[in-house]
Amino acid sequence: MLEKNDKSPAGVRILIIEDEIAIAEGLVDLCEFKGFSADHVQDGISGLDRALKGAYDLVILDLMLPGMDGFTVCNRIREKDRELPIIILSAKTSEQDIIEGLSLGADDYISKPFSVETLFARIQAVLRRARKTIDPTDELVIGNLRVRFRDFVGSRGTEELQFTRKEIEILEYLWKFRDRAIPRHELLHEVWGYENAESVDTRTVDIHITKLRKKIEEDSSRPRILLTLRGEGYQLRSMNGHD
Fold it and tell me: CA dihedral defined by 98, 60, 81, 214, rounded to 10 degrees?
């Protein structure tokens, strides 16, 4: 049973980019019932324009849209804004679609059909993390890899790197507890903000880790910095004191 959430932060604005009117109107009603302000756009081109100009706190994005598909919308948003939270909500459920959506910078990917409570648990988790302040003074240095958390940028040797907010949050947390294996459910709880992280079924952590390796590793197929320890989790190695 859906219960009204009186703890929703006042003033939160959500943009819903969805071409199916019945679904969109239902999402708007549910958002408002939960205490959020919600606007709806039916096509990708208008949705992109509103997302970049409308000062929204979160975008809920369908993939199969007229005018411009959701993958392109997500990519264009990330080119201009690396912080705006994006949740993809789509009937496209193949492994490749999920990987592509998350690789383009979406914070989460929810498949249709979905439960209302699952959707709002994900919305609240994304919003909660988006409000967390990244330490402006901290940076990661491992060998020739340098990442400035505050600016969402870094370098590996002479190559310049750019990161999304979610990627920075992952690196920041792993760097804080470097040389310790971080279980997947811990990342889901601490970085994604899921309350019951051990019961969350999502590939988002694995896909973000894969994307990060392609940026920070010399050879992502043979990682030396961001390791997967079977049965334990992920570990960011400081590489013999180069930190």
Answer: -10
3-class secondary-structure state, position 104: coil
pLDDT in tens, 167-220: 999 999 999 998 899 999 899 888 887 777 676 667 788 889 999 999 999 999
Q: Helix, strand, or coil here: 226?
A: strand
Give yes or no for a contact between 236 and 226, defined as CB atoms under 8 angstroms apart.
Answer: yes
List strands edge to edge, sheet with 153-156: 139-142, 145-148, 153-156, 159-162
Greatest CA span in the chain, whole angstroms?
Answer: 57
Average per-residue pLDDT in the chain? 86
Contact 106, 85 (CB under 8 A): no
- Pairing type for strands 139-142 and 108-111 reads unpaired
Cα torsion through 172, 177, 181, 185, rounded to 10: -60
- pTM for the model: 0.74
d(CA 216, CA 42): 37
CA 149 – CA 131 distance, rounded (Å) = 15
The β-bridge partners of 58 are: 14
- Enter the tokens of residue 94: 């193949």
Hey, what domains does the chain have and what are their CATH numbers? 13-130 (3.40.50.2300), 139-236 (1.10.10.10)
β partners of residue 147 = 140, 154
Tokens representing 132? Answer: 């967390």
Q: Do 188 and 200 touch, CB atoms closer than 8 A?
A: yes
